[in-house]
From TrEMBL:
The gene is SLCO2B1. Gene3D superfamilies: MFS general substrate transporter like domains. GO terms for cellular component: apical plasma membrane; basolateral plasma membrane. The keyword Transmembrane applies. Its main location: membrane. This is Solute carrier organic anion transporter family member. The lineage of its organism: Eukaryota, Metazoa, Chordata, Craniata, Vertebrata.
Length: 565
């Protein structure tokens, strides 16, 4: 026999099918819909925007400036490996954050108390909200401690030995013509004077603010006119759009598609996806260093990695779970013999329109929004060794009046989440093979004095064209798959149920679209690089007879000036 109605917790009592006279007791207050409350919400959103802005400003010394910093003071052959390590260590942060988030989400958002009205919630309850804010405090403290060593860095890092010797030789060669020209200034043409000034800019990178403002427009236009730079940046925009959508909505996608908890979804992502990303970045840097890849080799590696990533993304369209059968939404009870059409079977219950306390009929695997929508008038709590299970009985909308269990129905294919995430991780690793080679194409494709500015422009494009609009695009696409919205203050608040097939096809389809765009950009990059390489070889073959003739004319005791360089 179930407990008396007066002894029940508020969520049980308000969700039952009670006589009409009890309806006012479960009417939800509209006190949270006042303009003052909305103003408070907007102020919290504003604080979040300011915090994200400060976070972006604080990350500039590491990326993008750190990339140019490493490439300036490292040997050319070691730079790809160092950058690969930098990118890999950078990705360790999100991986650890997902693991930390998994632990924090096991705690209720108000750590020291449960919701008002003695509402009993578990981590598997769809209404559960984890302590999402606690991870920010832990991460902020860790960042503050990690920033302390930066105060002890020297103003200028010592260059690696071989790189320093190489630069001295280059400066010695370039200084010789300059010294000769000092003796005959009248012979300098305006074009030669401009080239000399450009060379001085390369040798002396420390410009004043006024000099930088004068040089900036020319350098900006020169960088934007570089076809390799633009195509590589566009490919990275596509990859960043894919990564932004995946990082923002993959936990929610796994939670809805495979009916797992948010904590478990974050744990899987932190343990599988981000380690594979780190491996892909490091392997990409090692391949560039060990194989001594030039621009054409880097372009080929990027294209190969993205083609394989695109190939392994195809099975993701077919791995997923069907939508839940929700009475009155995706499932009509009249389809089963002996049952009345929803919602006539519970018309006498006066169920709240905004209620949400899902229950599941284990015999038919049909889910009801609340016990009231199932026509249940009483509840029974069965105590077990580790937990208690709540059942609702006397349900007029359920076949033969069978009891229903509290909570959403378990999915029959939750085990598919592991192979799904393994394929996602493999595709992420293959996509991240392109990370270091694509950066090397940019760093080696622009002038040395323009490197920092080029990387800064690149990151500006990534933020504006990828990281800002991509979550909005993914979120809008996901919202179109919703079949039942919860209302708050008369407006749509949160989606309770999705069409899983549409959700999977549109989410994975967006990912596939961005990957295809990256493949096209890398294919164009490789085609342009091969054309440039072919033209350089043709020019070199044509100039070889002239050089040989010059050697014969100059005699064995003389060497042409160009041969020294």
């Amino acid at each position: 026999m179930g407990p008396r109605i007066e002894d029940m917790p508020q969520d049980f009592k308000a969700s039952l099918c009670l006589p009409t006279t009890s309806a006012p007791a479960r009417t939800h207050s509209n006190g949270n819909c006042s303009s003052y409350t909305e103003t408070q919400h907007l102020s919290v959103v504003g604080i979040m925007f300011v915090a994200q802005t400060l976070l972006g400003v604080g990350g500039v010394p590491i990326q993008p400036f750190g990339i140019s910093y490493i490439d300036d003071f490292a040997h050319n052959s070691n730079s790809p490996l160092y950058l690969g390590i930098l990118f890999a260590v950078t990705m360790m942060g999100p991986g650890l954050a997902f693991g930390l988030g998994s632990l924090m989400l096991r705690l209720y958002v108000d750590i020291n108390q449960m919701p008002e009205g003695d509402i009993s919630l578990t981590i598997k309850d769809p209404r559960w909200v984890g302590a999402w804010w606690l991870g920010f405090l832990i991460a902020a403290g860790s960042v503050a401690l990690a920033a302390i060593p930066y105060f002890f860095f020297p103003k200028e890092m010592p260059k690696e030995k071989h790189e320093l010797q190489f630069r001295r030789k280059v400066l010695a060669v370039t200084d010789s013509p300059a010294r000769k020209d000092k003796d005959s200034p009248s012979k300098q043409s305006p074009g030669e004077s401009t080239k000399k000034q450009d060379g001085l800019v390369q040798i002396a990178p420390n410009l004043t603010v006024i000099q930088f403002i004068k040089v900036f427009p020319r350098v900006l236009l020169q960088t934007l006119r570089h076809p390799i730079f633009l195509l590589v940046v566009l490919s990275q925009v596509c990859l960043s759009s894919m990564a932004a959508g995946m990082a923002t909505f993959l936990p929610k996608f796994l939670e809805r598609q495979f009916s797992i908890t948010a904590s478990y979804a974050n744990l899987l992502i932190g343990c599988l996806s981000f380690p594979s990303v780190i491996v892909g970045i490091v392997v990409g840097g090692v391949l560039v260093k060990r194989l001594h890849l030039g621009p054409v080799g880097c372009g080929a590696l990027c294209l190969l990695g993205m083609l394989l990533c695109l190939f392994f993304s195809l099975p993701l369209f077919f791995i997923g779970c069907p939508s839940h059968q929700i009475a009155g939404i995706t499932h009509q009870t009249s389809a089963q013999p002996g049952l009345e059409l929803f919602p006539s079977c519970m018309e006498v219950c006066s169920c709240p329109s905004d209620g949400f306390n899902p229950v599941c009929d284990p015999s038919t695997r049909v889910e009801y929004i609340t016990p009231c929508h199932a026509g249940c008038s009483s509840q029974v709590v069965q105590d077990a060794l580790d937990k208690s299970q709540v059942f609702y009985t006397n349900c007029s909308c359920v076949a033969e009046g069978n009891p229903v269990m509290a909570g959403s129905c378990d999915s029959t294919c939750s085990h598919l989440v592991v192979p799904f995430l393994l394929l996602v991780s493999l595709g992420s690793a293959l996509a991240c093979l392109t990370h270091t080679p694509s950066f090397m194409l940019i760093l080696r494709g622009v002038k040395k004095e323009d490197k920092t500015l080029a990387v800064g422009i690149q990151f500006m494009f990534l933020r504006i064209l990828a990281w800002m609009p991509s979550p909005v695009i993914h979120g809008s696409a996901i919202d179109t798959t919703c079949v039942h919205w919860a209302l708050s203050c008369g407006r749509r608040a949160v989606c309770r149920y999705y069409n899983n097939d549409l959700l999977r096809n549109r989410f994975i389809g967006l990912q596939f679209f961005f990957k295809t765009g990256s493949v096209i950009c890398f294919a164009l990059v490789l085609a342009i690089l091969r054309q440039q390489d072919k033209e350089a070889r043709t020019k070199e073959s044509r100039s070889s007879p002239a050089v040989a003739q010059q050697l014969l004319v100059s005699g064995p005791g003389k060497k042409p000036e160009d041969s020294r360089v």
